[in-house]
Design goal:
The protein has 674 residues and is α+β, with helices and mostly antiparallel strands. The chain is 18% helix and 27% strand. Helix 1 packs across helix 2, helix 6 crosses helix 10 and helix 11 packs across helix 14. The two termini are 25 Å apart.
Amino acid sequence: MKRLLVVTGIIVILVLVIVFPGKKWARGHVNYKTAVDDHPLLCTNCHLHIHKRSPFSKLDYIDYLSPLNLTVSADGKLLYVVAQDANQLLVTDAVNGMVLHRIPVGNKPHSVILDSKNSTAYVSNQWSDFVSVIDLRSFNVTDSLSTGNGPAGLSLSADEKSLYVVNSYGSDLSVIDLASKTEIKRLSTGNNPTGTQLSPDGRDLYVTSRRAAINTYGEPLLSELTLVDDSSRRVRDFVKMESAYLMENIAFTPSGDLAIVTLIRPKNLVPSIQVERGFMMTHGMGIIEQKENGRVIQLLIDEPNRYFADPFDIVITPDGKRAFISSSGVNFITVVDIDSVRQLISESSPELLSTYSDHLGISSRYVIKRIETGANPKGLALSPDGKILYVAEHLNDKIAVISTEKMETINTIDLGGPRKITVARQGRRLLNNAGHTFQTQYSCYTCHPDEHEDGLVYNMASKDMGRNLTNTQSLRDIGDTPPFKWNGKNQTVFKQDGMRFSTVLTRTEQFSYDNLDAISAYIMTGIPYPPNLKYNPTGDLTEAQKRGKLVFERTTDNFGNTIPENNRCITCHPGPYYTNLLPADVSTLAASDDSILFDTPHLNNIYASPPYLHDGRARTLEEIWTLYGKNDKHGLVGDMSKNQLNDLVEYLKSLRSPDYAENTSTTKNKSYNH
């Protein structure tokens, strides 16, 4: 009753405002916010859907399950599903589709694996930095294993004495001894790893990486697969994957002759408006031959005039005949005939294979079917006999059940998530879908994986070729830090993602106003930062960070002179978001830039966003000043010692979202799980 009265009161107030003299003011207000003069005059778009802390906002939010990854028991009877936004492992009857157990785990669980006896499950908790150990007889969590930062992909060693944990934020691999339950090694990997797989012979462990190595703009993109020797638990090699990134997951053929990884080939060196020529993003797979001097080959799963954006997971049937790839940005499963792939690569010269890596028509040689799914298909799992494929529909709270023989969906398992699709949930679906881009070339997720940023610099040519290079900015926590874009010309997300978005980026029709409202609602309310467990897990700063904080907030230099107010760090970067929301000249414009001021960026979790500056020329935080801030216009640093600069950088790395200011690392973010 109370809620009904509140809603009724709001409606009455809104009607009064709109019908009477306030209507003219409201029209002008909406025109300013949306940068158009025909957006529907509906106050709820902003005053209900995009406020995450108002009393009314709670009427509009629902917590969803968001299944991400899953696995199947050895007898094929049970599914173990990671419900990322519910912080649960769902034990589900694969036959009748009933959820039998909902086991609480850590914050933002990522992956699940089982031991060979199917007596223990391991669940990585990406925002908690530990793995939950679950007894599958009692279905209780019996232990937790500490890991590095951002645990994601998991694998057991061949002897099952060790657990490998891919640390996505730390860019390393924890090797945990299961007898002592302690981490015995931490191995460096490629940048932002998430997936891992042990070869069928138990000899090699591959670890994927999503972000490319930081490089000078103009040089070829290079990402790395990490190859670990399982017997010695040591890194044996780094396999280079040229002109590709976002390698999410990897699978081996049962015979072990091929390892296949999902990937994206970005064309970030050409102007973004070339998207209508098929130049912006292509999607495919990397094939690593498992033999001496084996080749690394890339093939696309796209077609001419039709792209299959954001390949996420890959599984291969027990007979080694077919691979299934989830194209999460277009809601399809791509079916690949592996014998056709073998035939193609065996008969092709290195030069021809190089051509095929960008050839949109070559997929007709090996792609044999596309199977449509529900929203945002992510993790895949095959039944032990390979006849059934299970698909985690991440933003649908369901599991698709697909016959691998018929290559069609035969059932859907409802995991019991909310029936209602809120405005923000619809916005999240839009952000993760490429349907609004020319020929579905890419989604927002493609450049903003996990709503963060991809670490690349793009030629956002809206005026001249080769001008105004742009370092991708994170979408996390931006709702409270308008304006937007590096030049701050977009006062709201409505403007940012409206006509400008379709003109410069997607090259198709702009969002309908309903969809624009939805994606704005999601961006403004639903994208929190992960806890900064690497540099500030509890809020207690280290001694170096405390010294750096003093430098950050100082008002006098090392010689006792007063630092002009506009040249102090704290002036332009005050908490809690560490931005004053104002434009500034920090003397970092390049010759190829238009003459503009830069919108002061916020700094929370800045450690996770290299490279730095508007065009990504600074590879590290240190380089902002040691290479590109020598004139003291980006804060006074010329008087500082090297130790002081080190302390300042340590403090900057400690900055974290205000959502965690009053609590510890176990804090549940205060945003909602749309």
